[in-house]
Design goal:
- By secondary structure, the protein is α/β, with parallel strands linked by helices.
- Helix content is about 40%, strand content about 20%.
- The chain has a ten-stranded mixed sheet, sandwiched between helices.
- Helix 3 packs across helix 4 and helix 8 packs across helix 10.
Length: about 280
């Protein structure tokens, strides 16, 4: 398995310069085809205006989004014309509540989606919606980059977060090309259950599976000594000098994660290294 079809999605070409640079570098490194989806986001929320105004405002917002995506497409095409990789550019216009359609259409047929993290100073609601659409509707693994990262000098030392969940297993399988290329893989287990199939050997079966792929992995079993699991994981990533994290995404419902927070959201909010996740 290898990443031969990579997708990145942007709403503003200027603010996504580092994201596109990283996607181009990754496509070159993997000898993959890069697709760029430029989306014009129509911010109109119908139902909030007086009778008769909705149609006018909707048309104006749509026209503005269409103009924005046309500018973004031109900038991206000009940017990629000078590159030596295989690439294509698609465009779409959608209201913020309907971004899932165009995102999922391409994400479903991509090996990997590359995005900037949707939280923090550079984040917005559209970026969050695009990330969730790629994960949930597109069923694609997503590589989330910290702000400003434009290179692909990562994946040498990988922390593989493991909690026996379906999401973690899916992420591990999606990350196999990167895990094979890494020089060190750390299976990170935080506060494992005392009752369960792996109680006597946490991470043992996963380590065996990886070894059969030629991946030598070490297992770190950590106590939850901080209030949040994400804090323990982030500290361990720094301790072992990992330059990438692989983890399952949204083990709880998205509603619960959005209201109460969760490991996925907290990890992405404070991510200092790229995070590959899958659901």
């Amino acid at each position: 398995m290898a990443y031969k079809s990579i997708l990145t999605i942007i709403t503003d070409a200027k603010s996504a310069t580092s994201q596109v640079d990283a996607a181009v570098a990754l496509a070159r490194r993997e000898d993959a085809h890069l697709d760029v989806l430029c989306i014009g986001v129509d911010q109109t929320q119908t139902g909030y205006y007086y009778a008769g105004a909705t149609a006018i405002l909707t048309q104006e917002a749509y026209n503005e989004a269409r103009e924005e995506v046309a500018r973004a497409e031109k900038e991206i095409r000009d940017r990629l014309d000078a590159e030596d990789i295989r690439w294509g550019v698609d465009t779409a216009v959608a209201q913020i509540g309907a971004l899932g359609g165009p995102v999922a259409l391409l994400a479903r047929f991509s090996d990997l989606v590359v995005l900037q993290k949707p939280y923090g100073p550079a984040g917005n609601h559209a970026a969050e919606a695009i990330l969730e659409a790629a994960l949930f509707e597109g069923k694609a693994p997503v590589l989330v980059l910290p702000e400003g990262m434009s290179n692909v000098d990562f994946g040498t030392r990988i922390a593989l977060a493991w909690n026996q969940s379906d999401e973690a297993l899916t992420a591990m399988r999606a990350a196999l090309p990167l895990l094979k290329a890494a020089t060190a893989v750390d299976i990170t287990i935080i506060d494992p259950p005392s009752h369960g199939p792996e109680r006597s050997d946490p991470g043992g079966m996963l380590s065996q599976l990886l070894s059969r792929h030629g991946i030598h992995a070490e297992v770190s079993v950590l106590a939850k000594t901080l209030p949040k699991t994400s804090e323990v994981l982030a500290r361990h990533v720094r301790d072992i000098n990992a330059d990438m994290v692989v983890m399952g995404a949204y083990g709880h419902s998205r509603f619960r994660e959005a209201i109460l927070g969760g490991t996925t959201r907290n990890m992405l909010e404070h991510a200092e290294v790229p995070v590959l996740m899958a659901h």
